[in-house]
Structure prediction request, 172 residues.
Amino acid sequence: MNQNPYSAPDPVPLSPMESAQLTMRYRIWFVLGFLALVFIPLLLLPFATVAVWDGRFGLTIHVNPDPTINMESVRFATCWDQAEATYFLSQTDDRFGPVWSNASRSAAENYWTIDVPCSGRSHRTGLGDTYVEPRFLVVEFESTTGGERTLHRKQFTIPKGHGLRSMTIQLP
Prediction:
């Protein structure tokens, strides 16, 4: 018998049957924990696979110009959001303004085609796919009124969708 009143009582010895049952319980819990650690990540693996991509789509722009517009001066810039478009509209210095797209002019009169960047993420299951593209187009052009040239910038919304698109704009 233990003489110290503050110490724990002596443990009661387990019978061999109780000891075997306790050992078996621990083994079962160990095996179940191990299986959970192995199989849960394997089950979730298809949901974690992601492909990140970026690309471009062609945007054909038909310009309906005013007779005062110098069509050789027309330039295009894509903007990802309204804040960027507003900033580009306010800038007159190209060092801090938009990055102008290399537009190819079509043989048809007043048609241009520009490459618009886009990007996204594709999940294996298709549940979390994303697609991101610029939302606005800023057009810069010169007009001549009374022999005086004036530089203008105007904002348009790029049509939503996937793949090739077209839009018609009115200048000024």
Notes: The mean pLDDT is 84. Helices lie at 16-48, 82-90.
